[in-house]
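Team,

Forwarding the record for the chain on the shared tracking sheet. I've put the sequence and predicted structure together so nobody has to dig through attachments.
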Amino acid sequence: MPTHAEKRIVPYTTEQMFDLVAEAERYPEFLPWVRGARIRRWESDQVFIIDMAVGFKMFREHFTTRDTLKRPHRIDVEYFSGPFHHLTNRWTFEPVGDRQCLLDFYIDFSFRSFFLERMVGVLFHDAVRVMVSAFERRAATIYGPAAKPVEMLPKQARGGAV
């Protein structure tokens, strides 16, 4: 069961980072391994069902999640259908000063397939770090380069890999 928790202070506002993460249908434009994303339907103005396609080399999978937006501080992603036993994903955004945000990312999942679980498990933590960094690069592209470098919290404060 891969689990990962990471906290970073980024030089963008909570609203900016929330908007970036909330636009899940744009993920194929900047997230490695995301091959497609389509909102299937909106259940309310804060909850949508999204179909995602991911791939890396010979690995290709599709899954569906229910994303709940709690603007501007939290996004919860719940597993709906696909190759997982379970998938839980949470983003929180807390202001730090005027123009910074504490980005807190958590993901926990397990695949139904032992083969997929083993294959993904080997690269999982590095892949998640790459993904979180891709959101930071996207913020720089959309909102402009940061005046201040991104700060990683000490491992004890960010939770480290579980």
